[in-house]
Amino acid sequence: MDHNNIRTDLDRELGQLRRGLLDPAAAVRPEGERLAAVLVPIFERSGDLHLLYILRSAHVSHRGQVAFPGGRVDPEDQSPMAAALRETQEEVGIEPAAVEVLGAFPGMRTATTGIMVTSFAGLIPWPTTLRANPHEVAEIFSVPMAALRDTRYRQTYVWRRDGLEWRFPAIIYDNRAIWGLTYRITISLLEIME
User: What distance in Å separates the CA atoms of residue 160 and residue 20, rounded to the nearest whole number?
Assistant: First the structure.
């Protein structure tokens, strides 16, 4: 495929995403809410867009789960977006100034803890040096957008806890299960880009 055609397709997809997201400045900290913020890092490699994910370490909440970089919004954070960028730098080493924030997703609540999570899509440079914070991140990996769209990877994830089990829709790619809130955010992004 012609390089100019690839660039045009990528620009079209990213433009569609920008138009479908909320203004990131509109994401504010609601009073009395426990709030977290995540970055959905997007980059281009080999003519395809990819999403960057982390596998949470055994030392943090939601241990062993696939997630986007992010965490709790601290009182000193100026905004949820500032928290998402700070957490991304702490967890994977991406400088806030290197991220081109495209927009925000509507807030979503975690099913298990009830925390309101604000997500921001952002372009990151590629290649880039990533550094996993070993306390919080067991692994950093990416998934091509083409694989996220491919229905062959849509499966059911079985989550077991305290002798009980629950079934969740998931994207299972390269033996990693994207489920729960991370799945919902990923699907929201894919729907905007359809």
Answer: 35
Residue 80 CA to residue 72 CA, distance in Å, equals 9
Select the more confidently predicted residue: 62 or 167. Answer: 167
The set of residues, in sequence order, having a beta carbon less than 8 Å from that of 130 and lying 6+ positions away, is: 52, 92, 93, 94, 140
8 A C-beta contact, residue 117 and residue 37: yes
Q: Which of 37, 34, 103, 96 is closest to 67 using CA atoms?
A: 37
Which of 1-10, 95-104, 115-124 shows the lowest mean pLDDT across its residues? 1-10
Measured distance CA(176)–CA(172) in Å, rounded: 5
3-144+181-192: what fold?
Nucleoside Triphosphate Pyrophosphohydrolase (3.90.79)
In the chain, domain spans: 3-144+181-192
pTM: 0.93
